[in-house]
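Sequence in, structure out.
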Amino acid sequence: MAGRKQAGDSWLGASRRLAELILNTRKAQQQSQEAIARKAGLALSTVRKIETNAIQEPGVFTVLALLHALDLSVDKLRDVTCEDDATV
């Protein structure tokens, strides 16, 4: 059955760390999912799914919008998602 390509193990780890980064940062900033969704221009359900890792491969623009809404740099994203890759 044709379908969307599934993330590999290294991407699943990166996806989990991204979800934790977003959730932990949002909570540390004492912001609600609703506030972050509004700032990022995303649906509340999208933020919920990313934080719970139900969406394992969010789109690049979605991730960038969340980073912006949380005042996080792209460097922080790289640090979190490339933890398993010593060559980066």
